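Researcher: Sequence of 6-phosphogluconolactonase follows. Predict its structure.
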Amino acid sequence: MPPQPPAPPVFYSFPSNDVLVDSLANFVVKAQRDAVEKRGKFTIALSRGTLAANLRGLVGQKDVQWDKWEVFFCDEAAVPLDSDDSNYHSNYLSFLSTVPIPPSQIHTIDPSLLDDIEELADQYEKQLIQHFAASNAARYPVFDLMLLGMGPDGETASLFPGHEILSERDALPVFTHCYRAVFVVSGAEKQEMLHSILDTPETGLPCSRVRPAAPGLVFFFADAEAASQTTYPSTKFRWIDNQKEAEEAFAAAQAKAARRAAQEASDD
Ligand SMILES: O=C1O[C@H](COP(=O)(O)O)[C@@H](O)[C@H](O)[C@H]1O
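Model: Prediction complete. Tokens:
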């Protein structure tokens, strides 16, 4: 059978950042439940930036099985773990320090290897292999959930537009081999970029290139300010479990947007 094309992105637009935060918490809990039922643990990768603050809705949630979480980082700087540039550190301050994930299940770089970057990267790769080789036969780690941000130039996880790393064999595929990738985008300063990423994906900016292969799915969670210039049809927030549901949600959202446009044209 020929490989299935990736599912269309599912775009959720929320009236406020608080509603986004609650919905994101609800989504993460469902992704965790699905992963634990199917694979016995929940592998999640976190990005730097505003993402961690948007995870605050998870604090105190009763259905979270923190002892099943295995936390990795989508990208990391080769800096001490208490540096302002550390992805781990920014997530620790705003999120990880507030929840009871066993420290041995939070997978950081080894700061004792900072003077040997190759060794540091090899050691992190070994941690990934240890966790994923047994459960996935795939060549790449297959995360249950990758939480991503959107940088000002359309970059994500330090994958910058035009950078040679994007054409390297192993960079993007980790992002296109996960079960679920979720972009979390908030604030007016993201308006234009979100519009480009979703409405003109053919431009090929890094965020537009995160299209997980089947059965993977990609979601965009945006607040009203970030979503205000985007015309890509938004779906009312609900759990979407598979590719077929993502396609149906997109088709329904597209049909609704077309009906609204026709109505507006006839009102004029
Ligand atoms: O450039 C980047 O920015 C994004 C978004 O950061 P935010 O603070 O505006 O949320 C970040 O997720 C990504 O790791 C980084 O490469």
